[in-house]
What we know:
- The chain has helices spanning 38-41, 43-52, 80-90, 120-129, 159-167, 200-212, 226-230, 242-254, 279-283, 293-296, 312-317, 319-324, 369-375, 396-400, 408-432, 438-442, 453-459, 464-477, 481-498, 505-512; strands spanning 2-11, 14-25, 30-33, 62-68, 102-104, 107-108, 114-115, 134-138, 152-156, 216-219, 270-271, 284-285, 290-291, 301-304, 326-330, 335-339, 343-348, 387-390.
- The chain is α/β, with parallel strands linked by helices.
- It has a five-stranded parallel β-sheet with strand order 11-14-17-10-18. Strands 1-2-4-3 form a four-stranded mixed β-sheet.
- Helix 18 (464-477) runs parallel beside helix 20.
Amino acid sequence: MLVKSFGAAVFGIDATIITIEVNLAQGINFFLVGLPDAAVKESQQRIKAALTNNELRYPGKEITVNMAPADIRKEGSTFDLPIAIGILAASDQANASRLNEYMLLGELSLDGDVKAMTGILPIALAAKEHGFKGIIIPAENAHEAIMVKDIEIIPVKTLKEVIQFLDDPSSIESLAEDSIVTSNSNEIYDIDFSDVKGQDNIKRAFEISAAGGHNLILIGPPGAGKSMLAKRLPTILPSMSMPEALETTKIHSVVGKLAKGQPLVMQRPFRKPHHTISDVALVGGGSYPQPGEISLAHNGVLFLDELPEYKRTVLEVMRQPMEDRMVTISRAKFTIDYPAGFMLVAAMNPCPCGYHNHPERECTCGSGVVQRYLNKVSGPLLDRIDLHVEVTPVSYNELRDNRKEESSASIRERVLIARNIQRNRFQSEHEQIERSDTRKLEQSVNANSDMSSRQVRKYCQLDEACANILKKAMERFGFSARAYDRILKVARTIADLNGTENIGVGDIAEAVQYRSLDRKEWGN
Ligand SMILES: [Zn+2]
């Protein structure tokens, strides 16, 4: 007898439907065909044990399991359940009549428990897209599918429950959205810029960064609060849209990093990988490709503390993904794309001893040491950072001051207005991109920081007074040509925050301040 069941394979952050055909014939062999990996091949042993431990019969026949489409590699152990049910249905121990309506997923333990798995969200989305009535998935993380509407989510703990459900669908109730606590907590971060005493100039830099999507580097001595400031950037960024939240959640679902009771990531991620991180852990990859930290930070913030401590190769592998807002992992037979659109916040000491340019303390680094230290971070990555911000420790007076600090929500209001101006500005450019070319559209300019040189010339025109100020600054500080465009982009964002159409003298003067590392005197 031939029986068909359905499972799914996650590829990148999307799932593909896998058809599983089980055929029983005379004989005693077990054949598994259709590009299964080692873990899938081992399913026979697990299924055999799970069946016999549940007083079910493992058929004494020749069993052929065919997984299609044949050109997709089937990885992992989540095909245990559709294969087991296929075998049971083919041997008249399970009801086959609903197998075309429900997708089945889950690894079986030897005693027949259905174990938790990763990638539930993309699988549920694929099941819905293909018109399945429901998905039968491990109870432990079934909540991850709850955001997908109009599809039954059947949580199961054991193989026996699955058999019972196929016989009588009323035996298990589909999960409903209200069955879990979805506090509307997207606005609530447990940290806020109002926690930060003083440091108004640095908060201002963060506001500009959030408004124009500008990457930022914090330069300051140990203990100046760089990390404390950086993790508050998500609190002033616009709330995530539903498509953004879904895409970020899919990535976290694929690596099994979704928190319990949180079916949708609504807070922008803040990822802080340690400087000892490997290339693969940072950008993704591995023999079973997985998204890396830059993808986990998608739609949020990636924070690299102690930037000069990272291996140079690690920083170099980030260059292309930062350009593309996506990382492409190539293997002999396939390539996988993971989204990687994040804002970068880096931090570093000004020099190895930490006190270069410090108002009160003496730098003890020898001549040339500071320059060598700086050279470690210069190059491709620094080229993508628009704002250089010098952080000094909070002064005693600021600490004592009882003044009420501005909240993140209040800063975010100004950020949103500036973002709106940018959206309108670049709208016409979007319309010129063919609708079919979605990848290009995704990469299209949404914020001032993404402007091409052509767009900088178009949208950042300077009057004579501004041009003069910039020229003088370029000469005085010895700025390189690469600094020029960055200053213009940042000045554009400052003008947007001010709500002015043209860049003014004050905007340019402020933007010039954010190029510390480009100044000639640095390191001399
Ligand atoms: Zn020093």
